[in-house]
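Task 17 of the worksheet. Students: predict the tertiary structure of the chain below and write it out as structure tokens. Keep your answer in the requested format; marks are given for formatting as well as content.
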Amino acid sequence: MSGGPFHDGELLVQNATGEDVLARRNGRFIHRTLSINSERMLGVATTLNIAASDGDGHVWSFLANGPEGFVTRADDKTVYLNRAEMTVPFTLWETVSVGAPIGLVAMDLTSARRFRINGSVRELTPERVTIDVAQTCPNCPKYIQQRLPVAQLRYQDVSPASGSDLPENLADLIRQADTFFVASKHPDGDHDASHRGGYPGFVKVKGKQLIVPDYFGNSMFMTLGNLALEPRAGITFVDFDTGAQLNLTGQTTLNLAGRMAHDGANGRYWTFDIEAWKLAPHCPDPAWKLGGYSRFNPPLET
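Model answer:
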């Protein structure tokens, strides 16, 4: 890892895109501890993207839900996850272990807020997951679609499934998505969790390959910087109508030709080649409805 807040992969992408000056400016928000102010953000988070790798090195993203307060700042170097209150695919518990690196992004989808935490698992009990914090960063609200809880609405049961070839119904789920969650890692092992969004159809499906536009963000390239050095990644799509989450693992390739951020029609992008998938429940209680699309979403080419 290089000195300062950025590692070699992040610096590589920042320079390749010409956004290094903006990255240095925004890098001041990266810290190695949790501020007191982070308590407020974590306290209202009801959605958590978790980045972790399995025993074979495959990277996965898992989406967890829970009531306000299920993610807690214990002190400036420790986060608690209330395992008894969170709902998450069972395969997460087959993936994480004590000492393993982990990435988190805690989100409140009603207010488009998110907070990033990277670290490692200190303790894992039936009641709680304790995380040692290594890096934190608040993120902007760009591309987060607002979702609101509906008191009388509940999701139905989703039957778990898995495979390698992508069925057409799951390809359609991806084509219709306005949101996905991504997990990446550095070759040294550090994991990172993030979020992407746009209008439905912003992710293209070509067989077992996804084509993902890289919209303008904070220029720090925490995700793409990892992918520049370690192409393995995980992605989760959610069907907010049925309450299913689709967890994918695979290999990525960056296409930074032209350097410019994608504007909905043209620009840089990356691809994700699916190696395996798992279908699991996504069970916020109550269920959610779309409140509105992010004002930052670029219009799609028609």
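Marker's comment: The mean pLDDT is 95. The chain is about 15% helix and 40% strand.
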